[in-house]
Structure formats: structure tokens, C-alpha cells
């Protein structure tokens, strides 16, 4: 199967990007890292564009689920582009996005984690280094049978002590997570499934069809219940930030009640709110 044959859906491209493609079809947004010559390694521009695309998908009420993937069949993502790694983070030319050295991926990881719609990693080929952390952060991972997973930090003089270590340890256990980081081995799709790193493994030829089928299954379900389920899983893991997400979601719903509306209307009408009309629930 060549790279072009993965398209099973009639995707509509949206927006102007250089490093990624943003497409959608019938409630599903697909964000593709388009740097196959470097196994879809990300430079700052790539991460800035993914972030913009995620914001599009978040703000578009017709979108219910987001797929993150890499162009071609050889790699999902091989992490930070080592050619633009400087002494203060990742750099590009002055005047462009990412000209100030930093880890743009820090904010992107949190953005995916907080995004109130499910994000599905569709992995063919390598998910390595920072690319492996990206799939970890996604809510679900559908892997092709040619997928390979691993961290390379200690080999290239780097480490990811946030989700890259902590979330990995939660998923596969502390000993296995240390093995992944200490030995920098690669794990095939079957091993990844056994470890609990991915949700399912499918033949490469079926990857997009199967991922889209999972997305369509989610699109049949209550969007707010999906949103609250994501926030609920993260609530304990993410401490106050996790509780904040869940609590603000509860507040979103509360805004729609007569009781909350009474507070708002009383303020606007400069009168005392009549909260005694509302039950003090047991
Ligand atoms: C992915 C691998 C295993 C694929 O091997 P394969 O198929 O044999 O292909 P290659 O011939 O090796 O590669 C093809 C071409 O692609 C280039 N390339 C591949 N990966 C990268 C990359 N990450 N950056 C730049 N170029 C890359 C190759 O050089 C080759 O080019 P040509 O054809 O010109 O020779 C294999 O390629 C591999 O192991 N790649 C490196 C994986 C890696 O080490 N990634 C970086 C790991 N670190 C991070 O991702 C850090 C991320 C980060 O931002 C961060 C976050 C939190 C805290 C810290 C950091 C931090 O930066 O430190």
C-alpha cells in the first residue's frame, strides 16, 4: 500500500498551513503532520499549526471528534526536529513562528489534554520521542500493525518528565515506563497493545476506515457526556487543573438553570435575587 491509498474518506481541506493539513468530514476533523521526509518530526511551526487546527476543531460546533495523524505510512511522528534544536529549545528563522527558543510542545500537550472533544491518535509507523508523547496524550490510539513505539530522550540528550513519564507510568506501570525511558527500545504494535499503550491494532490497509468507524461510534453519543467523561478521567490525575475543568463544565450546565438565571437577572435589574424560590436539594 502506498501513502496515498490510506484515504478512505472524502475529506474536505480547510485553511492555509505549511506543515500540517486540516480536513473534515461529517463531524470528524483530521489533523495530519505533513513532514514525511523527516518521519513527521515537528518543528515549532508544526506545533503552532496543530494548535491552530485544534482551536478550529474546538470552535466548530459541527465537529465532534478529532483525529491526529502523520502523513504516509512510515511515521505518525518522530518527535522534535533535531535539526532545529538549539541550546534554549527549538528555533526557526527570526521573524517566524518559533523564532524564540522554547518547547512549543508543552502548551500543545496541555491543549490536547484539555480539549473538550475526544482526540484520537491514528498511528501508522513510528511514534517515537515527542511523537510518542503526543499519542500518549491523545484520548484513544488506533494503531496499524506496522506501528512502532518508543522514547529516545536519553539517546539524544533529552527527557520529558511531564506526561511523557507520568502518563506513561499510569498506563503501563512504573517499572515498564522506566524500561521504556532507560533502554530507549522500540515496541511493536502487538507489544503496545499488551502494555495498554493503544486501544486496538488493525491492518495498515484498514487504519483510516477503522479509526473513522471508532469516531462515528463516538459521534452517536451525547457530546456533553463525552466531554464530562474526558474531564472526569483527568480530574484526579490533573489535580486542581483537572477538578477545574470538571467544575467549570458543571457551571456551564448550571448557567442554563432558572436558579442561575435568577442571579444574573437580579443583578441586571438591580434587585435582590429571589433564590428562596429554588429547592435546597437533599
Ligand atoms: C523515527 C526513526 C526510528 C525512523 O527510522 P528510519 O525509518 O530508519 O528513518 P531514518 O533514516 O532514521 O529517518 C529518515 C529521515 O528523517 C530524519 N529524521 C527522523 N527523525 C527526525 C527527527 N526527530 N528530527 C530530524 N530529522 C529526523 C532522518 O535524519 C532522515 O533524514 P535524512 O534522510 O536526511 O538522513 C528514526 O528516524 C529516529 O530514531 N529518529 C529520531 C527520533 C528522536 O530522537 N526524536 C527526538 C526525541 N526528542 C523529542 O522528541 C523531544 C521533544 C520535545 O520537544 C521535548 C518535550 C518535552 C521535554 C523535552 C523535549 C526536548 O526537546 O528535549
From TrEMBL:
It is an enzyme of class 4 (lyase). Pathway: Quinol/quinone metabolism; 1,4-dihydroxy-2-naphthoate biosynthesis; 1,4-dihydroxy-2-naphthoate from chorismate: step 6/7; Quinol/quinone metabolism; menaquinone biosynthesis. Keywords: Lyase, Menaquinone biosynthesis. Gene3D superfamilies: 2-enoyl-CoA Hydratase, Chain A, domain 1, Lyase 2-enoyl-coa Hydratase, Chain A, domain 2. Its cofactor is hydrogencarbonate. It catalyses: 2-succinylbenzoyl-CoA + H(+) = 1,4-dihydroxy-2-naphthoyl-CoA + H2O. SUPFAM superfamilies: ClpP/crotonase. GO terms for molecular function: 1,4-dihydroxy-2-naphthoyl-CoA synthase activity. The keyword DNA-binding does not apply. Substrate binds at residues 39, 78-82, 90, 126-130, 152, 158, 255, 270. PANTHER family: 1,4-DIHYDROXY-2-NAPHTHOYL-COA SYNTHASE, PEROXISOMAL, NUCLEOSIDE-DIPHOSPHATE-SUGAR EPIMERASE. This is 1,4-dihydroxy-2-naphthoyl-CoA synthase. It comes from Haloechinothrix salitolerans. The gene is menB.
